[in-house]
Automatic annotation (TrEMBL):
Protein name: Transcriptional regulator
Occurrences of domain Transcription regulator PadR N-terminal (ranges): 14-81
InterPro entries, A to Z: Metal_resp_DNA-bind_regulator, Tscrpt_reg_PadR_N, WH-like_DNA-bd_sf, WH_DNA-bd_sf
SUPFAM superfamilies: Winged helix' DNA-binding domain
The organism's taxonomic lineage, starting at the top: Bacteria, Bacillati, Bacillota, Bacilli, Lactobacillales
Length: 106
């Protein structure tokens, strides 16, 4: 897939994954990568920004002598996800209409 994912959509994808359960960074990257071609170096700045905005919180859990940092969706993050979902619906419909070209209503 050569299409670049806009920042707000990537934010929404991460928030959406975190509605199912908390994830540590690497596992979260793998979840998103199942559908979108992103790297860990792309995702970690997104996680920092989402945390800074108050949409995520973090906590550490020990694992094999090290700590894993887990990410959890906040109430504010749930609200932001709702906003992104609504905006995505409008945007997706507009792009689909434009891409279909000859089928668009005049």
């Amino acid at each position: 897939m050569a299409i670049q994912v806009p920042t707000e959509l990537l934010d929404g994808c991460v928030l959406g994954v975190l509605t199912r359960q908390d994830f540590y960074g690497y596992a979260l990257t793998q979840e998103v990568r199942q559908r979108l071609p992103i790297s860990e170096s792309t995702l970690y700045p997104v996680l920092r920004r989402l945390k800074k905005n108050g949409w995520l919180t973090t906590y550490d859990e020990p694992f094999q002598g090290r700590n894993r940092r887990y990410y959890r969706l906040t109430r504010t993050g749930q609200i932001q996800l709702t906003v992104i979902r609504e905006e995505w619906g409008d945007f997706s419909q507009a792009v689909t209409t434009l891409l279909e070209g000859d089928q668009a209503d005049d």
